[in-house]
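pasting for ref
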Amino acid sequence: MPSDEEKKDQLPLEEDDLRQAQAAARDLRQRRGGLDRKLIVRIAVAGLLVAAGLYLAPKVVNAFTHEETDNAHIDGTIVPVSAQVGGKVVRLLVADNQEVAQGQPLLEIEPSDYQLAMDARRQALEASQAQERRIASARQEALRGVEQARAALKVAAQETEYSRREVERHRPLVDSNLVSRSQYDRVVTQAEQAGTRRQAASAALGKAEAGVQTLEAELTAQGFRTKEAREALALAELNLSRTLVRAPLSGTVVKRSVEVGKFVQVGQSLLAVVDPQAVWVVANFKETQIKRIRVGQPVVVEVDAYPGYRIQGRVDSFQAGTGSAFSLLPPENATGNFVKIVQRLPVKILLDDPPDPRRPLWPGMSVLPSVDVRAKG
């Protein structure tokens, strides 16, 4: 058996071996752990690459087959309602954002002044018509006078002709002393008197005809005055009807800026009506994007307000000029330093189907249109 001293000499050797073994085990575990972590990282990276590929692949394909822009919005029919007559608002019949039908009364302007004006115009028309009837009656009377004058002239002409023949018959008789000179003179005097009466009848006829012409001219002038009075009455009636302002189309009331008691002027904007069905998309594509865009190409429109909601449409038309060309202060590139900026061209996109009432589309809402440029349009 080993002695106690030998055992003491062996203990340090065993402890060194144990420490070495433990250190070796730790190194092995560290190497295995490092290998496991590297493997996990590699697997994770590979998974991310695959996921990125699956996510980006459609977008890469879409970039070659579609043109899209987030600079787009809903546009629509917005009809301002203005006052056509001036006056104080006495009734307001609609509220903000209220649905209205075409022709529905919106508000009323004080109608009393326009009612009085219409009554005055009606009286003026009645007076003009009465004067026209009086002139027409006088013309008819004058026409009857003309007929009488013509009849009198006809009688006078017959008497003149008879007297002329009597003179011609008595002339050879007086030369032959078969008729006395005094009797012949009486026949000549009667013939002269008949001629005078004929001249008087002819003058009376001319005067009667001139009177008829005068009355006809007065009747024509009075007819024009009656027409003017009738048009003035129609305008007064129209102004009276305009005191009740009606909706120009069916839609929603917006931008109401009028209240009861407010005095409004002609042409002053009172409110506006938006037609929720007459909407379209205006997409401001970069000028570098429109090369492949054609009229008639299909479009998918995503609405920011309704995630996941897509609308089918088609390219309708291009604006004949960029947005900057029609701005209040268009750029003047011929002065100062020039900086080239990519311009945008508004493109109008029509929707294939009417808007879903559960997802209304209002002018100004942001959308994301994507044009399929593979289609020929």
